[in-house]
Design brief:
With about 130 residues, the protein is mainly alpha-helical. About 70% of the residues lie in helices and about 5% in strands.
């Protein structure tokens, strides 16, 4: 009985990871030309992961590396604007740059994709390990 809810959670996580990958591809367009070539190609590659690749542990490690590189770039371009609110609740931005805001969106997409893909990857690895047991 307990396996069915976990199975549904894994399916939802997989679907969310795929949706996050799609959002990553969309978020890349407005900032692509401002990125260094190596980052462009790396993000392009992650955006083109097949469904199988999306849940491979070594591919997810590439996402970890890319996030670290984008965080360095984010600092280099002046950071992302920070949203504050007036007493009336109106939002306004302070500091950062427009490129920084777009890079932060990429980082958020990658973190969300990785966060949903990891449990699926772990579940696949666990099933494979259990299948090898005598």
């Amino acid at each position: 009985m307990l396996l069915k809810p976990n199975h549904i959670d894994v399916e939802k996580s997989a679907a969310k990871a795929i949706a996050c990958q799609r959002r990553l591809r969309a978020a890349l367009s407005p900032v692509r030309e401002a990125l260094p070539l190596s980052l462009r190609f790396t993000i392009d590659g992650i955006g083109k992961f097949s469904v199988d690749d999306l849940f491979m542990p070594h591919k997810l490690d590439n996402v970890d590396d890319l996030v670290q590189r984008l965080e360095v770039l984010l600092r280099d371009v002046g950071g992302a604007p920070v949203v504050h609110h007036t007493e009336e609740g109106e939002a306004y931005s302070v500091g950062g740059t427009e490129i920084g805001r777009k890079v932060e969106v990429l980082i958020d997409c990658l973190n969300a994709m990785r966060g949903h893909a990891r449990p699926v990857s772990d579940r696949i690895a666990a099933r494979a390990a259990l299948g090898r047991l005598p």
